[in-house]
Specification:
Blueprint lengths: L20 H9 L5 H5 L5 E3 L15 E14 L5 E8 L2 E7 L4 H6 L5 E10 L4 E4 L2 E5 L12 E3 L8 H17 L5 H8 L11 H9 L7 H6 L3 H26 L10 H11 L5 H14 L6 E6 L5 H14 L3 E5 L3 H16 L5 E4 L5 H12 L5 E4 L13 E6 L7 H10 L8 E6 L5 H7 L4 E5 L9 E7 L3 H13 L3 E5 L14 H11 L5 E4 L5 H12 L5 E4 L12 E6 L7 H8 L9 E7 L5 H12 L3 H12 L1 H5 L21 H14 L1 H11 L1 H7 L2
Parallel strand pairs: 4-6, 9-14, 9-15, 10-12, 10-13, 11-12, 13-14, 16-21, 17-19, 17-20, 18-19, 20-21
Antiparallel strand pairs: 1-8, 2-3, 2-5, 3-4, 5-6, 5-7
Helix pairs in contact: 4-6, 6-8, 8-23, 8-24, 8-25, 9-11, 10-11, 20-21, 23-24, 24-25
This protein binds adenosine-5'-diphosphate (ADP) and magnesium ion.
Length: 701
């Protein structure tokens, strides 16, 4: 019998033992298609199951292995039925809490049994707790050996177990060991990014170590990501990201785009319809964009402007240039609420210009959608406004000349690219304008948006009154209710924002629904509306419309209203559990008020006691109304995850690098990227392929 061919990293995951069609499909959901993808699917963290901790030594937020004897086990009936098990060792007792359990499990967890369990320690009403621990029954205590090395935890998806991922990476590492790729060149390049005193392992060694840390590997270093193996990989990953964005830029620059000529008439008509004069910053940015649009290469420009700076008007003015030249414009927004609002605004503005504005959302009926698609397919100038529904495969644009992406921080770079592909016509690509209210400090912008030119809208319209921000403990709710009643009596409106409903049942977030009920009772003279992410889209838009039309005085909302919503008559914003939200998010939410001519107030409610950092963060909000300043502060206090938003370009996709921790490396990484692009572009492509398989699709010339 012929010997089986040795596997290579380029082979499909299906070649690994245990991978059938179902598992393959699940792996694909994580972007894992080849064995190489598995090798580069790195643990997001580690668990220490190497020793059993005494219960008395446990602290909240630790993940720990404990062993003990069951002291008590009973079902508690309350808000939710749960099984409560009390576990005791010689140093203390711990509560195990199960929300999902069957009769058999309940019987097995009986008084007197010895148990080893693992899980995250939380503060409970009486003792520390573990919710849904992993359990092993023991015949006598300490008979099971503990793990001898740290346990890797991989990013996963529904139906994909950690054990499966561990088995697959184990096999993939065997394949990696046989890989004959010469990595000396890249090892050397990566080393040149750090001081010669730091010794970084070669690529394969580093990969093996992070997947399977040896027993002696220091937990501290691995947990903080400062182990040389992690540093080695982080530099390479940052380099791959930088290269992919730069490549995208190169590739896009050598495409062609329609030159959008200046035709004054449409623009003049729109300027009249706006009903306000542009700020100097708006006028300048429009000129910058015009210059790009008049070129035969696709524009790739990021427009940063603080909340309320008037980005929509800039977008509309730039759209006139495409429309007047006979092209269509697509405006993509992250939520249906925002799409509705853009539709209202743009329809009003463009009515005077006789330009059609079409809404494409997920909630159109099949017939309406078919009709809208048909209208888009005609090569007639018009504006399409939509959510990501815009880049679904059935959508065809007749003659797309300009793509505008609003609130980019809610989209990933790949979604943005997909829309660019939509308008592709042979070698032609539409121009692209990306708008964001998340101000990004320069070093980060150069990394996260290396493929874009940047314009900044650094001036608010003149009619704005600054927002006064106060920070109060939630015990002062009654005062606030009085304040709402006062503001509404004067014809104003108020938002009351609660963090997400039931994001996790263990989190004690006050639900928006409860708040709406309480406020309705406390404010009988006022109409209180409720909007949250679990409502159906038509319901949400109806509530939002009612608030816009002043049929509601108070709107209780989750963070679904975070981006873009514009109701100038609302002048009071209350944000509960403010200590939980990121500063940029708070700034976005606060930006929903202060849009009209009345002085506005934002109240940040917190649940004490506050940590030192939390206090400093809330103070920043009170002291500053400037998005850039807040972002800089946020970066100092909490790191870039916060500043960039979780789905921000690159940041979300980073497997091992951390823009905050590794910030000092960024200049060296950029220099390296320059060198590789100039001297060895093929090596650059290999790096992108390794770290960002999907991104490569777009980078093909
Ligand atoms: P953002 O930059 O946050 O997207 P918007 O485009 O929603 O801001 O604008 C906020 C509000 O300011 C809107 O009601 C808009 O009509 C108004 N606005 C925009 N530009 C000006 C201006 N130059 N003068 C007065 N009001 C303006
Ligand atoms: Mg906006």
């Amino acid at each position: 019998m012929a010997e089986a061919r040795a596997l290579t990293l380029d082979d499909s995951v299906e070649e690994l033992a245990g991978v059938g069609p179902r598992l393959r499909e699940r792996l694909a959901r994580l972007g894992l298609v080849t064995i190489r993808d598995i090798v580069y699917h790195l643990p997001s963290r580690y668990q220490d199951r190497t020793r059993v901790l005494p219960i008395g030594a446990l602290r909240p937020k630790m993940e720990a292995v404990v062993e003990g004897q069951i002291l008590d086990s009973h079902v508690q009936f309350g808000k939710r039925r749960s099984l409560i098990v009390r576990l005791e060792d010689t140093s203390g007792t711990l509560t195990l809490r199960f929300f999902y359990f069957n009769r058999e499990q309940q019987l097995r967890l009986s008084v007197g049994r010895a148990l080893r369990c693992f899980g995250e320690i939380r503060r409970g009403p009486q003792t520390l707790e573990i919710v849904h621990p992993e359990c092993h029954f023991l015949e006598t205590l300490t008979e099971l050996p503990t793990e001898d090395a740290l346990t890797p935890v991989y990013p996963s998806t529904e139906g994909l177990h950690q054990l499966t991922l561990r088995k697959l990476t184990q096999q993939a590492l065997v394949v990696l060991r046989q890989d004959t790729d010469d990595t000396r060149l890249i090892d050397e390049l990566v080393r040149s990014a750090v001081s010669p005193a730091v010794s970084l392992p070669p690529l394969h060694e580093a990969l093996t170590l992070v997947h399977r840390p040896p027993p002696a590997a220091p937990l501290e270093a691995l947990a903080t990501g400062s182990h040389p193996a992690q540093l080695r990989l982080a530099i390479e990953e940052l380099l791959a990201h930088q290269l992919s964005l730069r490549r995208l830029r190169q590739v896009t620059r050598c495409r062609r785009a329609p030159r959008l000529a200046k035709r004054a008439l449409l623009r003049e008509t729109l300027l009249d319809a706006l009903g306000f004069a542009l700020t100097a910053a708006q006028a300048r940015v429009v000129r910058e964009i015009d210059r790009d649009l008049s070129r035969a290469q696709p524009m790739l420009r990021l427009l940063q402007g603080d909340v309320g700076a008037g980005k929509t008007a800039v977008a509309a003015l730039c759209a006139t240039r495409a429309l007047a030249s006979g092209f269509q414009v697509a405006l993509m927004a992250p939520t249906e609420l925002l799409v509705d609002q853009h539709l209202r605004t743009l329809t009003r503005w463009f009515d005077a210009c006789s330009v059609e504005v079409l809404g494409i959302t997920g909630r159109l009926t099949v017939a309406a959608r078919r009709k809208a698609y048909a209208r888009l397919a005609e090569p007639v100038p018009k504006i399409a406004v939509g959510t990501h529904a815009l880049f679904q495969s059935e959508v065809r644009f007749g003659r797309l000349g300009l793509v505008i992406v609003d609130e980019q921080h809610r989209f990933g770079v790949d979604q943005r690219l997909a829309l660019l592909d939509k308008g592709a016509d042979g070698d032609y690509r539409p121009h692209q304008l990306i708008m964001t209210a998340t101000p990004i400090p320069r070093t980060l912008a150069m990394t996260a948006y290396a493929d874009l030119d940047v314009s900044v809208l650094d001036e608010l319209p003149p009619n704005r009154r600054p927002i006064t921000t106060t920070v109060l403990p939630e015990t002062r709710r009654d005062d606030i209710v009085a304040r709402i009643s006062q503001a509404c009596a004067q014809g104003r409106q108020a938002y009351w924002v609660c963090p997400l409903i039931d994001e996790s049942e263990v989190l004690d977030s006050q639900s928006a629904t409860d708040t709406a009920i309480q406020l309705t009772a406390a404010l009988p003279a006022l109409r209180v509306g409720l909007i949250h992410g679990r409502m159906k889209e038509p319901e949400k838009s109806a509530v939002m419309l009612a608030f816009t039309q002043r049929e509601l005085e108070v709107l209780v909302a989750t963070t679904v209203i975070e981006v873009g919503v514009d109701v100038p008559n609302a002048s009071l914003m209350i944000i509960e559990n403010a200590e939980r939200l990121g500063l940029s998010q708070l700034h976005q939410l606060r930006g929903r008020v202060g849009r009209g001519e009345t002085p506005s107030v934002c109240v940040l409610l917190y649940k004490g006691p506050l940590s030192e950092t939390a206090r400093a963060r809330l103070q920043t909000m009170r002291d500053s109304n400037d998005g850039f300043e807040i972002a800089e502060r946020d970066l100092e206090l909490r790191g870039p995850g916060e500043v960039l938003g979780t789905r921000q370009t690159g940041a979300a996709a980073l497997k091992i690098a951390d823009l905050s921790r590794d910030r000092a490396l960024l200049p060296a990484v950029r220099t390296l990227a320059d060198r590789i692009l100039a001297e060895n572009p093929a090596l650059g492509d290999r790096l992108i392929q390794r770290w960002l398989t999907n991104r490569m699709e777009y980078a093909k010339v």
